[in-house]
Specification:
With 273 residues, the chain is an alpha/beta fold. It is 33% helix and 22% strand. It folds into two domains: 151 residues, 3-Layer(aba) Sandwich (Rossmann fold), CATH 3.40.50; 103 residues, 2-Layer Sandwich (Hypothetical Protein, Haloacid Dehalogenase-like Hydrolase, Chain: A, domain 2). The protein is built from eleven helices and 14 strands. The strands form three sheets. It has a six-stranded mixed beta sheet, sandwiched between helices. Strand 12, helix 9 and strand 13 form a beta-alpha-beta unit. It is globular. The model has no long low-confidence stretch (mean pLDDT 93).
C-alpha cells in the first residue's frame, strides 16, 4: 500500500466551532494512521497554539505553522527545519503605514514572543495559548527582531482597503492573506511563503507520491495547498473562491466534513453517528 499524506487546516476545517475535533472525525483519522497513512497539520497558527491537537491525534509527522513560514517536526531531529522571517526594516515600514490606516490592532509574532501594539484583553486570551512571552506597546519601539509574521486586526469592512494598500506598496516583499477565526485578521509573511511549499517539503521527507496528497481547507490561506494537492477538498463553510478551485466540497466543519469525506474515500465503512 502506498501511503497517503492527509493535510489538515485547523480553524474552520478540522476543528468545529467549539475549537474541538469531533469524535467521529478523530476516529476516522486514528484508523487511517493505524493503516499507515500520514496525517499532518497545516495552519496559520504558531505551534504552541496547535500542539494540543497534534498530541490529541497522536501525530508523528512534521507540522506546517504560520502558513508555511515555520515547518518543523516535533518528534524528529533529522528533519530540515524551515523558518522564514520578515525583514525588520520592511516590517517597521509596514507597521508605520498600518498605524495610519483603519486598523484595530497589529500583532507581531517572533516564534514564542508576541508583541501587541495596543492592549486588548481579547487578544491576550487568543494569543496566550502555550504561554508565550507577551509584550504590549508601540511595535515601532518594541520590535527589534525579525518577525515570523505580522497580524493585522481590522473591522471587516476595512480589510479590502488594507489588503489593497499592502499589495500596492509591498507586493515584492510580502504575502498577505486573511483568516476568519477567531476574528477578521490579515496575516503578513515573507514573499513566497504558503502552506503548499511547506507540504512539498514534508512530501519529499516522507517520500509520498504526488497523487497521494489530500488537503482540506476553508480560507484564502488554504488556496495554494488546495491547488497543490491532487485531492484538494473545500469545506462547505469555506470561501466561494476556494470551492471554485477545489476538486470537491465536503460537509462543513460542524458536520464532520473531514471524517465523512475520508471514510468514503478510503471505504472504511465507519458508520456516521
Amino acid at each position: 500500500m502506498q501511503p497517503y499524506l492527509i493535510c489538515l487546516d485547523l480553524d474552520g476545517t478540522l476543528l468545529n466551532d467549539n475549537k474541538e475535533i469531533s469524535p467521529y472525525t478523530k476516529q476516522v483519522l486514528t484508523e487511517l494512521q493505524q493503516c499507515g497513512h500520514y496525517v499532518m497539520i497545516a495552519t496559520g497558527r504558531p505551534y504552541r497554539a496547535s500542539q494540543m491537537y497534534y498530541h490529541e491525534l497522536n501525530m508523528n509527522t512534521p507540522v506546517v505553522n504560520f502558513n508555511g513560514a515555520f515547518v518543523h517536526h516535533p518528534k524528529a531531529n533529522n528533519f530540515k527545519v524551515i523558518h522564514e522571517v520578515l525583514d525588520v526594516e520592511i516590517s517597521k515600514n509596514i507597521i508605520t503605514a498600518l498605524q495610519q490606516s483603519h486598523i484595530t490592532n497589529i500583532i507581531a509574532e517572533v516564534k514564542d514572543y508576541v508583541f501587541i501594539n495596543s492592549y486588548d484583553p481579547r487578544l491576550f486570551e487568543g494569543f496566550s495559548m502555550g504561554n508565550p512571552k507577551i509584550q504590549t506597546g508601540n511595535l515601532l519601539e518594541n520590535l527589534n527582531e525579525a518577525p515570523t509574521s505580522l497580524l493585522v486586526e481590522a473591522e471587516e469592512e476595512n480589510i479590502p482597503e488594507i489588503k489593497d494598500m499592502l499589495t500596492h506598496f509591498y507586493a515584492e516583499n510580502i504575502e498577505h492573506r486573511r483568516w476568519g477565526a477567531p476574528f477578521p485578521v490579515i496575516e503578513i509573511v515573507k514573499r513566497g511563503i504558503n502552506k503548499a511549499r511547506g507540504i512539498k517539503h514534508v512530501q519529499n521527507y516522507l517520500n509520498i507520491a504526488d497523487d497521494h496528497i489530500i488537503a482540506f481547507g476553508d480560507e484564502d490561506n488554504d488556496i495554494e495547498m488546495i491547488k497543490f494537492a491532487t485531492h484538494g477538498i473545500a469545506m462547505a463553510n469555506g470561501l466561494k473562491d476556494l470551492k471554485e478551485i477545489a476538486n470537491e466540497t465536503t460537509y462543513s466543519n460542524n458536520e464532520d466534513g473531514i471524517g465523512r469525506y475520508l471514510n468514503d474515500f478510503f471505504n472504511l465503512k465507519m458508520r456516521y453517528y
